[in-house]
Amino acid sequence: MTAELVRGQNHPLPDTRLEIRVSAGHPVVAGAALGDERGRVPGVEWVAHPVAPSLPGVDVPRQAAADQRLAVDLAAVPDAVHRVSVLLALPVGTGGPASFGRAAAPYVALTGSDGTEIASYTITGLDSESAVVALELYRRQGAWKVRAMGQGYEGGLAALLGDQGLERPADLAASILETERARHTPPAAPVQPPAPVQPPAPEPAPAVPRPAPATPDTGGSISYTHPRRRAAAPEPAPAPAPAPAPAPGPQAAQGPSVPVAGDAAGWSMDERLYNQVWGMFEDLARTAAAYRSACDFAESRLDRELDETLSDYRSRVGGANDAARSAARARHDELVERAQEVLDRDLAQLAVESEVVEPALPPAYARWDNPVWHAYRPPAEEPMAVRLGDLHLPERTDLRIPMLVRLPMERGLWVDSGRGRSEAAGLLDETELKRLALDSAVAHTARLLAVHPPGGFAVHVVDAAGAGAAALAPLVDTGVLAAPPARGAAGVSAVLEQLTERVDLLQMALRNGAVDALPPGLDAARQLLIVHDFPHGFDDRAVTRLRYLADEGPGVGVHLLMVADRADAAAYGPVLDPLWRSLLRLTPVADDHLADPWVGHAWSYEPPLLPPGSRILRQVLAQVAEARPAKRP
């Protein structure tokens, strides 16, 4: 199965002979930089580019094109090379876009020597950047992995090469781009002899000036030209017919676009809805960022103008100072009011789209109160993503965007049962907060079980003290667990040992290309380990195994779901810091601890809550258990 990467995600490489395919929709220059163990490029001879396209183990295209192919043989690169960065840059002076934000997002696919696609990555979130590090192939403990980078540079190729540690990067960048410009520059036309001088013609009568062409109004509703939104086909132009000239006057305003569920690019409705939800998320992030930027600019301009009036002694006489301050505040209020109007308009459009999209979501993306759960049937294949809650911004708290996380998950989950800095958590006592955290973890687990095909997802539970028996009852009573919850230090050690051996076995098989040699009775399902009441029942060896599962497990389908308060494990000190950082932190109550990679907003997260008194979770789990294939004797 192809791993569809997101920014920052890594994936093991089962093959050392690779082909990297780039599809950009417009010409790009492709290259590769070889880095040492510190990730730095020692010199220009370590960079493959169109002027020097071949290095040991690396071959890149010789000119810019919309579709590029790079060949990499990691077994042939020098031993000093620990990192291979795939670089993309926009050529200059060829008539193409000046930045990646003005064109469709580039798509990069990594295939093995047999043509099987290993991983892919769509480089989204670029704006004014004209060069980007797309992927990074790197060594780790003797094995090669790929990481989705998507690191863009407004300073272009020179800034990118400089960030790679290359000395005098501007010289190499200029050489590459100038060579590409020369390929697209047509030969100069032959010089024509001067034309004979003609007698001056009579001066023509002045022509009636034509009105300038109308500029498209950029102040309308949210643009549906998002890279993942599908653009509607243009209507054919009517045949020209004589008509009287229109009377002067304002053009009729067009109404806002009517949203449609699934109005995005994709091969299936599942993919189209996923892309549409992410388009809504990015649109909300951008419109909020524009509003906040406008307000910040208005405040800074007001402060500057007020300072200027105070520094001019002449304005203190005759009331001129008061008039200047009033004018400055009026300009401030006008700018903020205009920004608020644009924000309200865009938020209203997104709210309408949310009302259309939310009821159409499949179970993997739907809230627990969606009627789609009442018609639930176990799926035949794994979806693209799963919903882990909702996100909203303070500009409009009732506009909630589904928080979709791609499957298979590249990180484990941590439901934080501590108070943290959340106001909602501060209103609850410790016992209630821990109960809500385990209830939230059970809801996440039930959804993960429900969206995977029967037998495709196995769940293990560690509850050393047995304190979570009541909350875990839906999982235990319906029989969806792989085994009863492990109790005591011995139970904790046994489960961790079993899963650690599984990770070791699968990693060795993948590294050596011996997947066919795996034991025939090995369960092929993805594994989830729920750890409750950590660190109770954990000794140092168990903690080490837990950290190993968090780091290496996701690459072979073994995931963690921690339900813990970080303060309870404070005795371990910084030893556990890598564990917490490797997990995606969720909360059982509303909290604003998540930030997006585009504009850095602090998003408020809300967990997926079950309707009060609802039995839908038990009904879904019962269907999951009934559809599971019978275990082999």
Secondary structure blueprint with pairings:
Elements (H helix, E strand, L loop, with lengths): L2 E3 L4 E3 L4 E19 L11 E2 L5 E2 L2 E2 L5 E9 L9 E7 L17 E5 L5 E6 L8 E10 L2 E11 L2 H8 L5 H16 L84 H43 L8 H38 L27 E9 L2 E11 L5 E5 L6 H4 L3 H22 L5 E7 L9 H5 L10 H24 L14 E7 L7 H13 L5 E7 L12 H6 E4 L4 E5 L6 E5 L9 H12 L6
Parallel strand pairs: 1-10, 15-18, 15-19, 16-17, 17-18
Antiparallel strand pairs: 2-12, 3-4, 3-7, 3-8, 3-9, 5-6, 6-7, 8-11, 9-10, 11-12, 13-14, 13-21, 20-21
Give the tally of β-strands: 21
User: Which structural category do the helix and sheet elements fall into?
Assistant: alpha+beta
User: What percentage of residues falls in helices of 4 or more residues?
Assistant: 25-40%
In the predicted model, the low-confidence regions spanning at least 5 consecutive residues are 186-256
- Mean pLDDT across every amino acid position: 83
Shape annotation: globular
Distance between the termini: 29 Å
- Using only CA atoms, what is the Rg? 30 Å
Q: Enumerate how many helices there are, as a single number.
A: 11
Largest sheet: 12 strands, mixed
β-sheet strand percentage: 15-25%
Oligomer: single chain
